[in-house]
Amino acid sequence: LLCAAVPTGQFAEVAYSTVPVEFLLRNLTTLLEPNFPLEGYHALQDVTLVSAFKGTVGNLPGYLVYRPLLKQLVVATSGTSSVKLALHDLRALKHRHPSERGNVHSGFWDLYQGVKPAIFAAVRKGFAEYDVTEIVITGHSMGGSISYLLCLDLLSGDGGLLPSGVALKLAVFGSPRTGDASLVEYWRELVAAYQKSHGLDTFKEYSVKAYNDGVPALPPLQLGYRHFAKESLYLDRTRLYHIPASESEHSIFSVAPSTEASSPSVNFPRGGHNYYNGRDFERLCRRIWWLANAVPDDDGWEDRYRKRLSKNKP
């Protein structure tokens, strides 16, 4: 499971980049080098950018790439990366979902509606131009909520985007609650119906909560929100555990210490929200910031980045 989730998580993290993803992929060989921003992000190799987009609400960024070796489209949406987006996170009032099957977080819903046309256009382009057998939807934090709302539309047949026989994979990391119990029930009915029609392997869901991450506990249960995933996954440093369905709303668990000498002892003092998939996401953000300040559009940006790097800890 960890092997399946980790590569997808790389796409979710890169969605936060303030440097255009077009530049990142065009200069990937250099950016994968030690101490450069994408060090270790090997899942980005051999991908083709289909579309990069920003929503009309909060300028929510995201992108879609094609992975030819896997015949896979990947839709990645950023989580909260600005004050504008954070304000939408705080709008926890309920909005009636168009299905009339429940309610959705109004802030997340507005963000999704603002980016939905661009995502749909990108997905249509991807299916039209490439040989696709699977589409992957991924996001971290609020991006996970957007991913769920997108999957909800895909499973319901909205827009007729999914060709028959195409597998759908959802992988979210540190996602908050997005809808109420009625909407969650509708989600699970759609998943069951899709798997019944196309096969159990045509839909896979990975909803990962991490050690010391408080975001999956929001919005509070007292406000009526619930998690979509019936059986989530719990990441304790480098070990991934199944969370029983009976505990699906819980986010903090006690895990017996590993006796393996290789087991890390990092406690994530800043919280676990930025430490998914065995990587320090905060380091990526710092390095992307240094890259942005190196004026990547101008020649010689590599040397300017190295100079900035030498003045700071990687």
UniProtKB/TrEMBL annotation:
It holds the Pfam family Lipase_3. Residues 74-221 form the Fungal lipase-type domain. Keywords: Disulfide bond. It catalyses: a monoacylglycerol + H2O = glycerol + a fatty acid + H(+); a diacylglycerol + H2O = a monoacylglycerol + a fatty acid + H(+). The keyword Disulfide bond applies. One of its GO terms (biological process) is lipid metabolic process. InterPro entries: AB_hydrolase_fold (IPR029058), Fungal_lipase-type (IPR002921), Sec_MonoDiacylglyc_Lipase (IPR051218). It comes from the Eukaryota. Transmembrane segments: none annotated. PANTHER family: ALPHA/BETA-HYDROLASES SUPERFAMILY PROTEIN, FUNGAL LIPASE-LIKE DOMAIN-CONTAINING PROTEIN. Belongs to the AB hydrolase superfamily. Lipase family. Class 3 subfamily. This is Fungal lipase-type domain-containing protein. It comes from Sphagnurus paluster.
